[in-house]
Design goal:
Blueprint: E1 6-8, E2 14-16, H1 18-24, H2 28-54, H3 60-83, H4 91-119, H5 124-133, H6 136-147
Antiparallel strand pairs: 1-2
Helix pairs in contact: 2-3, 3-4, 4-5, 4-6
Length: 154
């Protein structure tokens, strides 16, 4: 039986309060899935609002890039503090690594979305969804092993 009031991780840190249940149910992976859902929701909201506001006066790829840049700034603290629980390292250095990984996925969007939209006739939002679906497993591996790894034990 798992004590949801207090749980100790492999690093010796204890979890209590509302986060104890999340950690008891799978911890890291659950918070990563929540972060991914939050990231997708923020990006979709920004992209959708941008598309509505621009009314075809701004190229959709510009709106994809702008939405991505704003989303990365908004979600980084969640990944740093909640998902990967980084302590004591420079926020700027961590953000730059996070941004570098995000750029690879932005490039996947910039390449993939026009293929779906222009060649296959899929809507911009549906095309973005198809690109996003492919990214979580790879993103998790990269963030866990490089972006947010414990640099003190390297």
């Amino acid at each position: 039986m798992v004590d949801v009031e207090k749980r100790t991780t492999h690093g010796g840190k204890s979890h209590s309060g509302p986060w104890a249940t999340i950690w008891a149910l799978g911890g890291h992976r659950i918070t990563y899935l929540l972060a991914g859902a939050m990231t997708a929701a923020v990006h979709y909201a920004l992209l959708g609002l941008g598309l509505l506001a621009a009314e075809d006066s701004v190229p959709y790829l510009f709106l994809v890039v702008a939405s991505h840049l704003i989303t990365v700034v908004i979600v980084y603290p969640w990944y740093r503090l909640i998902v990967f629980r980084v302590r004591g390292e420079s926020w700027l250095a961590g953000y730059l690594r996070f941004y570098a990984v995000g750029m690879s996925f932005l490039m996947a969007s910039v390449i993939g979305i026009p293929i779906f939209v222009e060649l296959m006739g899929i809507s911009i939002m549906a095309a973005q969804a198809l690109v996003i679906i492919a990214s979580p497993p790879l993103s998790y591996a990269i963030h866990r092993r490089w972006t947010f790894r414990d640099r003190g034990s390297v």
